[in-house]
C-alpha cells in the first residue's frame, strides 16, 4: 500500500499547461465549448487476479498486459495476450489496477485479429466479487455508471471505453469460436492534477494510512464538480459535501471545485426549495459557507451569497415552533443508519438548526447585515428553549453536543463512548469524533478511527465506503480476492437502504472525516480567524509519541512537529507564513 500511495501522490504533482483550442476554432462561440480541469493518465494493471483458463489452451500470454504500454497499435507480431472461445466455453480475465480510480479503460489491439476483432464484455468493479457479478445480482447495477456492457473492438487500433469508479476490470470474449489478440489494457485515470499540500505522519502507520485514504477518497470525487461517489452517487449532495470540504481544507487548500459546486446547487435550488429536497442539506450549505470562509477568507465570494443566505435564514426562522422546537419541512434526513429513528432525526435537525443560525449570525456580521444578525440571535434564543433527547442515537448525541444543547461530557459518557464503534456511520462518524474531542476524550476518538475506518483497510479498501458496520468484518473475505467458499462476501452480502449489495459505493467522500479530524485535533490546527489569519495550535497526541505534518493556508504551508517528552508534556516546533498569527496551547515551544 505504501508504494501505491507514493505513486499516486507523485502523479498529483505532475504540472500541466491549460489546453488551448487550435486556431481553426478561434471563431467559434466560446459558449459552445466546455473545458475541464481534469487530467488523464494511463495506469498499467498490477496483477492478474483470476482467469477462466489455467491450462494455456484458451488464454495465453496473459502476463503481457502487465507490461507498461505506449497506447499505440503497431504491425508487430508478438506473444500478446490471446483469449479464445470454442463452441462451448467462453473465457476471460480479471485485472487489478492496484487501487480505486475514476475513469475507464483503454484497449490496444495488434496485428493478427479478424476484422473486426470481436465483441468483448467489460465489467468494472470496486471489489473482485462485484466484477464477477451480473447486473441485477446482489444489487449489481448500471445505475449511475455503466459498469457491465459489451463492445465491438477493431482488428488493429485502440479503443477507450467506460466511465466509472473501479479497481478491477473483467474482460471476456463473447463470440463463440472466436479469438482476440490484445497488446495493452490500461486504466484511463481521470483526476484533478493538484498537490497534496496538507500532510499527516505519526508513529502509528495505521493512522497515517487512514489519513491518506480519506484524502484520496475525496480527491477522486473532485471531478468537474464535487461528487459523493465515483461509481454511484456521481452527484452533488450538499450535506454529504461538508466532510469533503473539511478534508479539502486540510489537504488541498483552496480549490475551485468547492465554490463551483456550491454555486451550481444554489442555482438549481431557488428558494423556498431545499437543496436536494432535504431541509438539513440547506442548513449544511450555510455551515459549509461559514467553514469555507474561515479557511479560505474569500470575502468577495461570500458577498455573492448574501441574498440567498438571508432568504434561507428567514425561511428557516419560520420553522421554529412557539415552544422552541424545530418543525423543518422537506425530507427529514440526517444519514441512512438513523433514518428510521424519528426522535433522533428531530434531535439532529433541531441541533443543525441551532448550528445553522449561529453560523448565519457569524456570516451576517461579516457581511454587515444587522437585520439578519438580529433574526439569527432571536432564532438561537428560541431554539435553546427546547432540548430533545438523544433517542439512543450516536448521531443525535453528537449533534446535540456540537450545538451545546447537551454537554459534550454527558453525550460522550452516556452514548458516544458506549459499545465501541457499534452504531457508527461513515458520514456522521465525523461528528461523533468531533463531539468526543469536545468532551476531551481524544484517545477514545483515536481508538474509534483505528478500529472503524481501519477495519475497511483490513478488508482491502483503498478508499472509504458509503457505509460500514463493524459486524460485517466477522469472517469476511477481503475485497481484493476471489471470495473463498468459507468466507463472507462483504460487498455482495451486506448493505441497506439505497446501498444493498454491489450497489454499495466503496468510494464515498462523506466517509473522509478522520482526515480532517486528525489534522484538526491531533496535529492540532484550529483556524480561529477567517483566512487562517490566526491559528491556535493545540495538539492532542493520546497514545502517540510524535506527530508531524503540514497544513495549507492562503499564505502558504504551516509546518508542525509535536513530540511527547518523558514527563508527558508535548514539545512543539513549527514554521509559519509571516502573515499568520499562531497561538500555542497544550504544548511547549
Structure description:
The protein has 16 helices and 17 strands. With 589 residues, it is of the alpha+beta class. It folds into three domains: 2-192, Sandwich (Jelly Rolls); 234-241 and 254-449, Glycosyltransferase; 530-584, no CATH class. Strands 1, 2, 5, 6, 7, 8 and 10 form a seven-stranded antiparallel beta sheet that branches. A four-stranded antiparallel beta sheet has the order 11-14-15-16. Strand 12 (525-527) and strand 13 (534-537) form a beta hairpin. Helix 3 (205-221) packs across helix 4, helix 12 (408-416) crosses helix 13 (429-438) and helix 13 packs parallel to helix 16. The longest helix has 25 residues, at 342-366. It starts with a helix and ends in a 5-residue tail after the last strand. The model is unreliable at 1-17 (pLDDT under 50).
What is the domain total for the residues?
Answer: 3
| Number of helical regions | 16
Return residue spans where pLDDT drops below 50 for at least 5 consecutive residues.
1-17
What is the share of helical residues?
A: 25-40%
Structural class: alpha+beta
CATH C-level of the largest domain: Mainly Alpha
CATH architecture call of the largest domain: Alpha/alpha barrel
Number of separate strands = 17
Relative strand content: 15-25%
CATH overall fold name of the largest domain? Glycosyltransferase
User: Overall pLDDT, averaged?
Assistant: 95
Query: Terminal Cα separation, in Å?
Result: 35 Å
